[in-house]
Design goal:
Blueprint: H1 2-17, H2 21-32, H3 37-43, H4 52-89, H5 108-122, E1 126-127, E2 133-135, H6 136-139, E3 164-166, H7 171-180, E4 187-196, E5 208-219, H8 223-238, E6 244-251, E7 254-263, E8 280-289, H9 291-296, E9 304-312, H10 313-321, H11 334-338
Parallel strand pairs: 1-4
Antiparallel strand pairs: 2-3, 4-5, 5-9, 6-7, 7-8, 8-9
Length: 344
């Protein structure tokens, strides 16, 4: 029995002196392994009397469990110490700012286009798009602008060949719709898209701009229907207190035709340099669809009538958000685009 006590004391001292995992593992094998100290103790059982063997075996087993527990605890202690050491050596200063991910936002032209399209689709209009490279037939002739007509000089054009051009207005979409839907009346469409003209490149003109045009054809459509529709759009885009004014004008596609003005956003109608002291700012053109345009599409102009309007999205953005130079909308200057984050 004295040998068990001696091996216990020896093992405890050895384990106490072990100061790293490598030494501890080596001692574990020396003490608990198949050829270790406890294995040697078990061999002594064959020299004991039959009555002494169970008591001896129990004491050896108790010692084994005690030593295993001590070894497990020391292993856990070493692992924890090693982890703390690494954490200390690899410490991260969490007070430093993290890497920020910049999120994008909608372009102001997209914001305005979405607002207009959402309004008109909620009123029952269908969004229709068309080709940007258009036939002269739909861009000019079906819009009541025949060849050599002086109005073509107002829309100096990028021609691809004799018959095709970059469309100068989204009216071309409307003339296509009038033709394709002439036997499927009424017509109620909103037509967005890019348009192109050889305009001077200055603060208020660009060779490319975005238009959204509306068209409604049905029986008994009057000028008052057009005015009410435009008033809804004006208040939706520019505020509930916004008012519009209709001025007589001339467009080949419509008769009668009007220019639609908004109360000046800067002076609220009092008159200032922005509105040239008039109190009003021009927004869009509109009118009742010309009977000849209906007849060219195969629609009975005595039975059906309608209105059309065309809005320059770029101009609406400039008016609503105070953008001074139309070219700013196409230069992708992040400083400008970041200003519209709050509107997205």
């Amino acid at each position: 029995m004295s040998s068990i006590h001696d091996i216990k004391e020896e093992s405890l001292q050895l384990l106490k002196d072990a100061d790293n995992l490598e030494k501890l593992e080596k001692l574990r094998v020396e003490i608990l392994g198949k050829k270790g100290l406890l294995a040697d103790l078990m061999k002594q059982m064959r020299d004991l009397d039959k009555d002494e063997r169970p008591v001896f075996g129990q004491k050896v087993n108790d010692l084994k469990q005690e030593l295993e527990k001590i070894i497990r605890e020391k292993i856990s202690s070493f692992i924890e110490s090693e982890m703390l050491k690494k954490l200390s050596e690899e410490k991260i200063d969490i007070t430093l700012p993290g890497a920020s991910l910049k999120h994008g936002n909608k372009h102001p032209l997209t914001l305005m286009s979405d607002a207009i399209l959402e309004l008109y689709t909620s009123m029952g209009y269908t969004v229709v798009k068309g080709p940007e490279i258009e036939l002269d037939k739909y861009n000019f002739e079906r819009a009541n602008i025949p060849e050599n007509h002086p109005a073509r000089e107002m829309q100096d054009t990028f021609f691809v060949d004799v018959e095709r051009l970059l469309r100068t207005h989204t009216t071309a979409i409307q003339t296509r719709v009038l033709e394709s839907e002439s036997n499927n009346l009424p017509i109620k469409v909103i037509c967005p898209g890019k348009t192109y003209r050889r305009d001077d490149d200055d603060a208020t003109h660009s060779h490319q701009f975005i238009q959204i045009e509306g068209l409604l054809i049905d029986e008994n459509i009057k000028m008052t229907d057009l005015k009410g529709t435009l008033e809804v759009m004006a208040t939706h885009l520019f505020g509930d207190d916004q008012k519009i004014r209709l001025r007589p004008s001339y467009f080949q596609f419509t008769e009668p035709s009007v220019e639609v003005d908004l109360v000046c956003f800067n002076c609220k109608g009092e008159g200032c340099s922005v509105c040239k002291q008039t109190g009003w700012i021009e927004l869009l053109g509109a009118g009742m669809v010309h009977p000849k345009v209906l007849e060219m599409a195969g629609i009975d102009s005595l039975r059906y009538s309608g209105f059309a309007f065309g809005l320059g999205v770029d101009r609406a953005v400039m008016l609503k958000y105070g953008v001074k130079d139309i070219r700013s909308l196409y230069t992708n200057d992040v400083r400008l685009l970041d200003m519209f984050d709050r509107f997205d």
